[in-house]
Specification:
three-stranded antiparallel sheet, single chain, Arc Repressor Mutant, subunit A
Length: about 450
């Protein structure tokens, strides 16, 4: 790696799944705000639906999600009731909109028993019109999935499944408390395809304890045998001051910044060599996959689930900690299951914080979205689209000089391009356009690479 890039590796910056980022969410946006925003949606506005299931069979030490370990099924059964009630509540306020995408996340959504999964899907259909072309996706832990689950997923209309893998190396698995064999994962992929769920994603990680360039490369090569359509390659975010269970990870076993970077680049080379196309920061897709096609068309999007083909301006989140996005701003449900339960049981929305968007936020959001998705943006073009003077970003353009000198950015007038070799540093470029970014926030974010 070029020595002039080393100084960027340890910077802690947002992943920019939204702008403003969740750090800017506050209590000024509450349930009342959300209700007004919902009621103002045009009846023909298509939406996307996100369902959060905050339960797992055990806690993986690298996890940064809102989830808890469920030793009994009773709390999960009670949660299913709450999801049904929240779906009905929002349906009454907003009306029955078309849903062009449904995404189950967690936690482990397949902690729900098959019958309860079908109940929630029935509730989704009762309150939304799932279009025939809609993608209905779910995140899966292959270690706990059964054939009965797979049958329910197929019957419920799932079209895409994301299998959590992270790493196949036993020593790494032991260190993060996630023992999962290749055979387990392959068996689940086979079950899904046999049931007609043909679109398979894999989630891999680098930067975990005891990982090396060689071990990460071996995991990626083994993963190729699963013939996934899309592969996400995430960098582990070690934030034990936020996620206390991460303190159990031996820090001396974590790779340093240069080693992490080498792992990510080696894994990317294997994937690209196997015919996968790099998508934005950390995704890879087959060239004929819709995600890759959307990127070529300049229609790729990024939201709280990562890179997506979803073009709806409305994302409605259900469940504890779920985040929604509307034309007016962002909303987030209570992260506490008790607070969420009390609100929904009382017939109230569970929104506790959010962020109302200004015109400036919308402009900067579009700049960051295009950089994260396309690795390039024409600032003057976006300023015209937002009815803003073409010189609006003159200060930011001047601030790009160091990045230009270091080879992270290429500039031609108002056009900014992140060259392929600098793809891992695209978030560094985005910070130039983040009006809220400050050094005292940095420890709340993950490393630049």
């Amino acid at each position: 790696m070029q020595s002039n890039l080393l100084k960027y590796l340890d910077r802690r910056i947002p992943r920019y799944t939204s702008y403003p980022t969740a750090v800017q969410f506050g209590s000024a946006v509450d349930a009342g705000s959300y209700e007004r925003w919902l009621a103002a949606l045009p009846p023909d506005e298509p939406v996307s639906v996100y369902l959060h299931v905050p339960f797992c069979a055990e806690l993986c030490l690298y996890c940064g999600c809102h989830t808890t370990v469920a030793r009994r099924y009773a709390p999960i059964a009670a949660y299913v009731d709450l999801l049904e009630r929240e779906l009905a509540l929002i349906g009454r306020i907003a009306g029955r909109h078309k849903a062009i995408q449904v995404h189950w996340g967690g936690g482990t959504p397949t902690m729900l028993e098959p019958g309860d999964f079908m109940r929630v899907m029935a509730a989704v259909r009762a309150n939304f019109i799932i279009t025939p072309q809609a993608e209905v996706a779910i995140e899966i832990d292959p270690r706990t999935l059964t054939r009965e689950h797979v049958a329910a997923l197929a019957a419920g209309g799932i079209t895409r499944a994301s299998l959590g893998v992270q790493d196949f190396d036993v020593r790494v698995q032991q260190a993060v408390r996630r023992m999962q064999s290749f055979d387990q994962t392959a068996r689940v992929a086979d079950w899904l395809r046999q049931a007609g769920i043909a679109s398979i994603n894999l989630d891999l990680m680098y930067g975990l304890p005891y990982q090396t360039v060689e071990s990460v490369t071996t995991t990626v090569q083994r993963a190729l045998a699963l013939d996934a359509d899309r592969i996400a390659l995430f960098g582990y975010a070690h934030v034990p001051w936020i996620k206390r269970h991460q303190r159990l990870i031996p820090e001396q076993a974590l790779p340093g910044s240069s080693e992490r970077f080498a792992q990510s680049r080696a894994a990317a080379e294997v994937l690209i060599g196997a015919g996968y196309r790099p998508i934005g920061l950390d995704h890879f897709a087959r060239s004929d996959d819709l995600l890759a096609r959307r990127q070529r068309e300049g229609r790729l999007r990024r939201n709280f689930q990562g890179y997506t083909t979803d073009e709806s301006p409305v994302l409605l989140g259900f469940g504890t900690s779920a985040i929604g996005a509307l034309p007016d701003g962002y909303v987030q449900n209570a992260a506490s299951t008790v607070a969420y339960r009390d609100a929904i049981a009382a017939g109230r929305l569970a929104t506790v914080r959010g962020c109302a968007l200004t015109a400036e936020d919308r402009l900067r959001r579009d700049v960051i979205q295009r950089l994260m998705c396309d690795l390039r943006v024409d600032l003057a073009e976006l300023c015209v689209a937002h009815d803003t003077h073409a010189d609006h970003f003159a200060t930011q353009l001047a601030q790009l000089d160091d990045l230009v000198n270091d080879g992270i950015v290429e500039r031609s007038g108002s056009q900014i391009n992140v060259p392929e070799h600098a793809r891992p540093f695209v978030r560094v470029v985005c910070t130039i356009f983040d009006a809220y970014m400050s050094s005292n926030q940095e420890m709340r974010f993950s490393r630049a690479s």
